[in-house]
Amino acid sequence: LRQSTEKLEKILDDTVRLIAGTMRIRDVYTADHQENVARLAMAIALEMGASDDSARGLWVAGMVHDIGKLHIPGEILNKPTSLSALEYNIVKRHAEVGSKTLQEVSFPWPIAKIVSQHHERLDGSGYPCGLAGEEIMEETRILSVADVVEAMCSHRPYRGAHSLDTALETIKSGAGTLFDKKAVDSCLKVFEKGFLFLK
Q1: CA distance 109 to 88
Q2: How far apart are CA 144 and CA 69, in angstroms?
Q3: Residue 197 covered by a domain
Q4: CB 112 within 8 Å of CB 10
Q5: Cβ-proximal residues to 81 (8 Å cutoff; 6+ apart), any chain
Q6: Contact criterion met (CB below 8 Å) for 39 and 62
Q7: What residues are annotated to the active site?
């Protein structure tokens, strides 16, 4: 039974990596971003005392959280200048589009819901639904912290990479308003313990 469980877990991991890998064909940045976010979200969850299973669910969510960007035209996704209001609205749809895509997969965790909420913010200023506080799943609150830190530390066509210190200062200043304070505190501890993003 244990061997069967381990085999199923490996199949699931391989499938998740395959799904996430489709993004690499389209956009290498997003593929690398998803992998780094997945690793950081899992580390934050474990630092917060989550079970191995819950942390693994966050790794899965992180690996596919931007899968909806497959539906964004490349000229918008990789535009070297600021997006117009119309273009930004197209980009903002990726959370909902990704969630709908992932609803077709019977994950043992609420992956589609986590993905749909990953741009929501505690004060209700996020998107797509303007959820606030406890309306946002704890898993999503962890994922959004990891997402912001990794995104800020990465080079994008329209801006250079920020330093890790700047990214951590951003989540610290937003703790309790934009971001979950426990998730922020745990993220800081994870980096204090030597967490590194993959290059």
Answers
A1: 30
A2: 16
A3: no
A4: no
A5: 158
A6: yes
A7: 69
In sequence order, the β-bridge partners of residue 159 are 156
Total domains in the chain come to: 1
- Contact 142/44 with Cβ under 8 angstroms? yes
Residues 6+ apart with CB under 8 A from 61: 38, 41, 109, 111, 114, 115, 118, 139, 143
> Which structural domain, as residue segments, surrounds residue 28?
2-192
- Whether 199 is covered by a domain: the verdict is no
**What CATH number is attached to the domain comprising 103?**
1.10.3210.10
pLDDT along the chain (199 residues), means of 10: 80 86 86 96 99 97 96 92 95 97 93 98 98 98 99 90 98 99 99 94
Question: Would 198 be classed as within a structural domain?
Answer: no
pTM for the full predicted model: 0.93
Structure confidence at residue 199 (pLDDT): 74
- Give per-residue burial for 29-52: e unless 16+ CB within 10 Å, then b: bbbbbbbbbbbbbbbbbbbbebee
